[in-house]
Write a structure and sequence with these properties.
alpha+beta; Jelly Rolls; Arc Repressor Mutant, subunit A; 7-stranded antiparallel β-sheet; 5-stranded antiparallel β-sheet; 11 helices
């Protein structure tokens, strides 16, 4: 027996003062053609293919709860799913509850995501996703402009779209998983207090940025030679340590003059200017994320190698248009 898509919204109470505009939808069906069209709409898909398992009847279900800034989705299919998708204006973090999924399967950029481990979807291009039958996929669906604005506020970097690391930071990933475990009950409650929900949405968004750190201000373009990439990577890995031009040249395998020339040929600032820029971005992140009374501007400046506090404040104000103390106060 088959039946059409059934959209069964849970009781969505009228908006009340202090309550968030959260919607919950449950969608289920047994018609494979309807499911195909449905998932094409959900995922801004170029193509969707569902391959039914002959040994079991076809069925699918999707539950989504959230508002425009952040939605949580769970989706299960009794068919193998493959899609070529390109989400527009959204960032998606996904994980499988009980199996593996493949992103860009069979290509040089293939990423196999194991059960329970979140992964971020590629951005700025179409990609494929493939999953076997009967696994449940969970997704955090985040509003693009909101996450970009948060990244800008934390790092001072403007990026559209954000280019996420495909290999997550282990500590950041663990923090994301802890935050999700603590906040999901409230995020799934349409009647939750608006301010409480906003605080949790912000916390989850920050953890996503921490776990899948977007590319730094000096991206590693395919055209950058390996020696320049090594120098940039050395900067990012040693921000709190004393670094000289000689250190960067050694990391790059160049003379100091050769390093300066290599940066110039690739439209980069001087090596020491690149170091200062990276340290300023890290300082902004630390100050923006700090709780009141937790750190001071002087502590952050010294941690990142800025000995002269006044000079640090001047560089910071020139770069971000505000004083470091303003960022710390939020």
């Amino acid at each position: 027996m088959t039946y059409s898509v059934a959209v069964m919204p849970s009781p969505n109470p009228p908006a009340q003062p202090g309550r968030s505009h959260v919607r919950r939808h449950d969608v289920a069906g047994r018609d494979i053609d309807e499911a195909t069209h449905f998932y094409e709409r959900v995922h801004d898909a170029h193509a969707v293919r569902l391959t039914q398992d002959e040994d079991r009847p076809f069925g699918y279900r999707l539950r989504a709860v959230g508002d425009e800034r952040l939605r949580l989705r769970s989706s299960a299919l009794s068919a193998r799913r493959w899609g070529r998708i390109e989400p527009q204006g959204r960032y998606l973090v996904t994980w499988a509850h009980d199996g593996e999924l493949a992103i860009d399967g069979g290509t040089d950029t293939e990423l196999v995501v194991s059960a329970g481990t979140p992964a971020v979807y590629p951005t700025g291009r179409p990609f494929t996703i493939e999953a076997p039958p009967s696994i449940t996929l969970h997704t955090i669906d985040i509003d693009g402009p909101a996450l970009e604005a948060l990244h800008l506020a934390r790092s001072g970097e403007h990026a559209e779209p954000l280019r996420f690391a495909q290999t997550p930071d282990p500590e950041g990933l663990a923090a994301l998983q802890r935050t999700l475990a603590a906040s999901t009950p409230v995020l799934l409650d349409p009647s939750a207090d608006r301010l409480t929900r906003a605080r949790l949405v912000d916390a989850v968004s920050r953890r996503v940025l921490d776990a899948f750190a977007p590319a730094p201000a000096f991206p590693r373009f395919p055209g950058h030679p390996a020696n320049v990439v090594r120098a940039l990577d050395y900067i990012e890995a040693h921000l709190t340590e004393p670094i000289t031009t000689a250190d960067l040249a050694a990391a790059a395998g160049l003379s100091q003059r050769g390093l300066q020339q290599a940066f110039g040929r690739n439209d980069l600032p001087t090596p020491l200017e690149a170091l200062r820029e990276a340290r300023l971005r890290r300082a902004r992140t630390l100050l923006a994320d700090a709780r009141p009374g937790e750190v001071s501007v002087a502590t952050v400046a010294r941690q990142l190698g800025f000995v002269h506090l006044g000079r640090f404040a001047g560089y910071y104000a020139e770069r971000f248009g505000e004083r470091p103390s303003d960022t710390l106060r939020g």
